[in-house]
Design brief:
Blueprint: E1 6-14, E2 19-24, E3 27-33, E4 48-53, E5 63-70, E6 74-77, H1 82-93, E7 101-110, E8 113-121, E9 124-133, E10 135-137, E11 140-143, H2 149-163, E12 167-174, E13 182-184, H3 190-202, E14 205-214, E15 217-220
Parallel strand pairs: 3-5, 9-12, 11-13, 12-14
Antiparallel strand pairs: 1-2, 1-4, 2-3, 4-5, 5-6, 7-8, 8-9, 10-11, 14-15
Helix pairs in contact: 2-3
Length: about 220
């Protein structure tokens, strides 16, 4: 996944989940944050950031904040839309762990949720729910970085699908370098950790997908 028309800036502050102030070429700009998580250990005053300029001239914010530099890691992609794009690219590339894919269907309904991907590989019928991981603590990835009732609901739906005979996966896209594993962040949201263990017991598989991250691009390794 490659971003076009990117610029670098210096992070100043974040007003809410969607809006931040960034210094770009000596001018303070109001920008859109493409991640509703906390990102507190990433979005700190003075951090180097990367922004993609919007193609929409009528938009209130001209830039989307897509990546931030963490000294202990390097560039971290915080675009919450990127993980699904990356997984789709990965599946279509032939490099994924799934072979002989005959159908890739995004946003497939199951129960009361929409699962990110439904695949068919021969007789295999597969659901994949995608989560982006941007939180690193002592070399390990953790999810979520903020409580996510939606994430718990998705795990419970996957568990039901597994019980009905579907092959089910939760795929953690690790949007930062040097990190290869993801663990449930039980300190922030213990219910997610419980739901993950219950889903695994029901037959849901866990995929950890490390990435290569550069200021203007990201790809699953």
């Amino acid at each position: 996944m490659i971003y076009s028309n990117t610029v670098k800036g210096i992070f100043i502050s974040r007003h809410n989940r969607f809006i931040a102030q960034v210094m770009i070429d000596g001018t303070e700009e109001t920008v859109h944050v493409k991640n509703t998580g906390r990102c507190k250990e990433l979005l700190i005053p003075g951090a180097d950031v990367v922004l993609a300029k919007s193609d929409n001239p009528g938009r209130k914010t001209k830039y989307d904040l897509t990546a931030v530099y963490k000294k202990s890691l390097g560039w971290v992609n915080i675009d919450s839309q990127a993980p699904n794009v990356l997984v789709k690219e990965w599946l279509e590339s032939g490099r994924s762990v799934f072979r002989d894919i005959s159908l890739i269907k995004p946003e497939c309904k199951f129960g009361n949720s929409r699962v990110d991907f439904y695949l068919e590989c021969g007789s295999r019928k597969i659901f994949i729910e995608v989560k982006g991981c941007t939180l690193e603590i002592e070399g390990r990835g953790y999810f979520p970085d903020a409580p996510t009732e939606r994430g718990v609901k998705h795990l419970r739906e996957l568990a039901e699908a597994a019980k009905e005979g579907y092959e089910c996966y939760i795929a953690f896209v690790i949007a930062m370098p040097k990190v290869t594993e993801v663990y449930p962040n039980i300190n922030t949201h213990p219910e997610f950790g419980t739901a993950l263990e219950e889903a695994k017991t029901a037959g849901v598989n866990v995929l950890c997908l490390p990435c290569e991250v550069e200021p203007d691009r990201i790809s699953i390794i």
